[in-house]
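A common beginner's mistake is to predict each chain separately and then try to dock the pieces by hand. The better habit, illustrated here, is to supply every component at once so that their relative placement is modeled jointly.
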Amino acid sequence: SQKIEQNSEALNIQEGKTATLTCNYTNYSPAYLQWYRQDPGRGPVFLLLIRENEKEKRKERLKVTFDTTLKQSLFHITASQPADSATYLCALGGGGATNKLIFGTGTLLAVQP
Amino acid sequence: SAVISQKPSRDICQRGTSLTIQCQVDSQVTMMFWYRQQPGQSLTLIATANQGSEATYESGFVIDKFPISRPNLTFSTLTVSNMSPEDSSIYLCSVGAARNQPQHFGDGTRLSIL
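With all components supplied together, the output reads:
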């Protein structure tokens, strides 16, 4: 069955450093991959979408890469700030017969001042 | 982007009872969805709420347990019926152009069953 893996352990980094979060998947060939941010007590907020034919996408301090050979996406936040502390979810879509978003469990990022 | 309001934001219920969650959007939207987010788990799609017709349920979810209404393009309800402690979860409403497109979420309803 389709499986998405994100680091279950929290990622702790120092303010100003680059945070890198990983999303690995198996048994799936998504047409695209999405990243969301979720704060405690809030719903997920859409950040970025990258398609299977795109290697990299940027938005302000965010960068996403998508390697369909490795079946992996990396999500980078440069010059991280304490306000970036949240849980980040990856979601796959557009592949297979299910035609729905499949979410990972998320990685908690904590940026220390 | 659309502003989505969910009510109630949280509730504590007795087992065997039912609770209806409301989702109101500030603009007309094509697609509305209901998700469940159990503690430590990923978001799981329950169903797509279809305007004027029966909802489309995902595998593992049935209408008798999770009846859904969508009377117009800005409003939907999800009922969690005959609740048990296993139904304790966060229930989220979302909107989007399609099931696999970027979605905008409400802040969810935190449901605890005693």
